[in-house]
Amino acid sequence: MARRIIISGGGTGGHIYPAIAIANALQHREPDTEILFVGALGKMEMEKVPRAGYQIVGLPIAGIKRSLSIENLTLPFKMLRSLRKAREVIRDFRPDVAVGVGGFASGPLLMMASMAGIPTLIQEQNSYAGITNKLLAKRAQKICVAYPGMEAFFPKEKITMLGNPVRSDITYVHLKRAAALEHFGLDERLKTLFVMGGSLGARSINESITAGLDQLVEGGYQVLWQTGKNDIDKAKAAIDKLGTDRVKAFDFIYTMDLAYAVADVVVSRAGALSVSELCLAAKPSILVPFPYASEDHQTKNAMNLVDSNAAILVKDSDAREKLVDQALALLDDVTRQRELQTNINKLARPSAADDIAAEVLKLIQ
Ligand SMILES: CC(=O)N[C@H]1[C@@H](OP(=O)(O)OP(=O)(O)OC[C@H]2O[C@@H](n3ccc(=O)[nH]c3=O)[C@H](O)[C@@H]2O)O[C@H](CO)[C@@H](O)[C@@H]1O
């Protein structure tokens, strides 16, 4: 009989793409597996998951607003409605296993699944566990992590360290350079700086790049720039002002494999999945951790690489002053690029998605 698996969570790309990578690996191992995603209504996963070819159901859940907001008063009702909806989805789909990847929807879904006696597995991308995953861990059968020391948050006997699941098309990107140049309309004679702000975009990176765009273009380089939704108009205005066709800006890039393929040097936030992808794609990288991520975990993600001489760190507070200079220095220095490339690739976990899929399947008797 076909196996049925629910994968739940989302909110940002850092939760959605590992979920898609696990789903792809499951279908590769067991092609007749039926997979249903459960996300949060109104969140990014409701659009990105169907684009990746999977069905998704949305729960009416929301997070606490940090500012004093009347919306917070409706949260308990949203939680109750989400629990009820999660119970319905489980009753109708009858999954053999439920997988949680973090983000709002995984809370109610995994809670109801474990109450119904369905085995659950958690995949934690970061070196720091949020409150939802800590609570869910008590009832989960297996917890797959990407960083050491996670027994500080989870029961030790349930933890397996397998790395973060990365979409398989990000392997062997060096074979896709020609296709990537054509896809983005870039010039094969020029070296490319790929700037990525993560799934939501990064304001300080965007401002720093805007300020140094003329230097990059005058330096003879071209730029592929992923800005996030909020800054795309400003980025396009800066490009128009410079009157150049050597800078291509996008709010979101669906073909990340091609973006990595074309990049000689990458400037990026240090979200867990971005970091795992940079390892797999073996890209010389300058990381600018988002300083307000919980427990400053992006700095930890970045330092993990910097300590192995596998990436360069620029602090968010130094970005405006130093980022473009550092990018130009690295673009100019092929020896340093090779050194970073070799070292970052040693930290890649190419089999993570498949290893996690194997753990998921093991939970089905
Ligand atoms: C601000 C914040 O709290 N960010 C968190 C969020 O980051 P964020 O959602 O930015 O996540 P990551 O950097 O981990 O991953 C981004 C994912 O989105 C994909 N992508 C991104 C941009 C784009 O244009 N196209 C695209 O496909 C990337 O290839 C990657 O798969 O989740 C991560 C994983 O839990 C955390 O480590 C980050 O700290």
From TrEMBL:
What's the protein's topology in the membrane?
Peripheral membrane protein
Q: Which reaction does it catalyse?
A: di-trans,octa-cis-undecaprenyl diphospho-N-acetyl-alpha-D-muramoyl-L-alanyl-D-glutamyl-meso-2,6-diaminopimeloyl-D-alanyl-D-alanine + UDP-N-acetyl-alpha-D-glucosamine = di-trans,octa-cis-undecaprenyl diphospho-[N-acetyl-alpha-D-glucosaminyl-(1->4)]-N-acetyl-alpha-D-muramoyl-L-alanyl-D-glutamyl-meso-2,6-diaminopimeloyl-D-alanyl-D-alanine + UDP + H(+)
Q: Which residues form the Glycosyl transferase family 28 C-terminal domain?
A: 192-354
> In which pathway is this protein known to take part?
Cell wall biogenesis; peptidoglycan biosynthesis
* Enzyme class, UniProt record, top EC level: transferase
Enumerate the subcellular locations listed in this protein's record, separating them with semicolons.
Cell membrane
Q: What does this protein do?
A: Cell wall formation. Catalyzes the transfer of a GlcNAc subunit on undecaprenyl-pyrophosphoryl-MurNAc-pentapeptide (lipid intermediate I) to form undecaprenyl-pyrophosphoryl-MurNAc-(pentapeptide)GlcNAc (lipid intermediate II).
Q: What protein is this chain from? A: UDP-N-acetylglucosamine--N-acetylmuramyl-(pentapeptide) pyrophosphoryl-undecaprenol N-acetylglucosamine transferase
Gene that this polypeptide is encoded by:
murG
